[in-house]
Amino acid sequence: MINKLKKTIYLHKLRKGSLTFTFTKRDGTTRVLTGTLKNAPVTSGGPRNHTDDIITLFDVDIQDWRSIRLDSIQEVKEA
To answer: pTM for this structure?
Structure first.
């Protein structure tokens, strides 16, 4: 339930602008990603938000779709 609420808040903010996420990747390394859903290109590769524990967003730096597990997020800042 908490993940679903967090996801809803993040998606709302991403549709209006950008957020910067600091999170732990599956390999244990820390990554910083600035993403958005505002004016993001519609492609066959994204966005897919089918589960409550994953958020899919457009990485503005590498110009591609990425997914983040909500339980891996360490920090979120408005970009």
So the answer is: 0.87
